[in-house]
Amino acid sequence: MITKFWWGEKEGERKIHWLRWKRLSKAKCNGGMGSREMENRKRKKVRIWYDNWLPGGSNAKVVSSNGQFDKNAYVEDLIDDDLKQCRRDHIFSSFNAYEANKIVSIPLFF
Predict the structure, then answer these.
(1) Are the C-beta atoms of residues 78 and 100 closer than 8 Å to each other?
(2) 77 Cβ contact partners less than 8 Å away, ≥ 6 residues apart
(3) What pTM does this model have?
(4) 78: how many CB neighbours lie within 10 A of its CB?
(5) According to the model, what pLDDT value does residue 47 have?
(6) Considering only CA atoms, which of 100, 1, 96, 79 is closest in space to residue 43?
(7) Residue 74: exposure state from Cβ atoms within 10 A (0-12, 13-18, ≥19)
(8) Cα–Cα distance between 93 and 27 in angstroms, integer?
């Protein structure tokens, strides 16, 4: 799916191959685009309070209390699928300001 995004076709026109898959799939910290990381994350359900998922920093785990979400809730529970956006009111009432701002700054792809 990621390769179709980078090199798919649109109305018979092929996209330009800007970078090799080897470079695209490298981790960002190693000079790549992190495409393989995105692909792997999409397949795995990420738990809010148990997994490292917040952007930036070495410790990417949430430290806020559970708030309005179950202790076994998944990151996908923070997104309103119908509106295709974060549940900002729930996020800001369930997480400390630092974490809430990090969460709502994560780009959503549908």
Answers:
(1) no
(2) 48, 69
(3) 0.59
(4) 20
(5) 92
(6) 1
(7) middle
(8) 33
Contacts of 102 by beta carbon, 8 Å cutoff, 6+ apart = 54, 55, 56
* Mean pLDDT score, 98-104: 92
DSSP string, 13-82: EEPP--S-HHHHTS-GGGTS--HHHHHHHHHSPPBTTTS--SSSSS-----S--TTS-TT-BGGGGEETT
Query: Residue 49's CB: how many other CB atoms inside 10 A?
Result: 15
Residue-averaged pLDDT of the chain:
76
User: How distant, in Å, are the alpha carbons of 3, 6, 8, 25, 30 from that of 52?
Assistant: 26, 27, 32, 20, 19
Kind and range of the H or E run holding 8 = none
Q: Of how many residues is the chain composed?
A: 110
Per-residue pLDDT of 55-99, as tens digits, reads 886 678 898 887 788 888 999 999 998 898 999 999 999 999 999
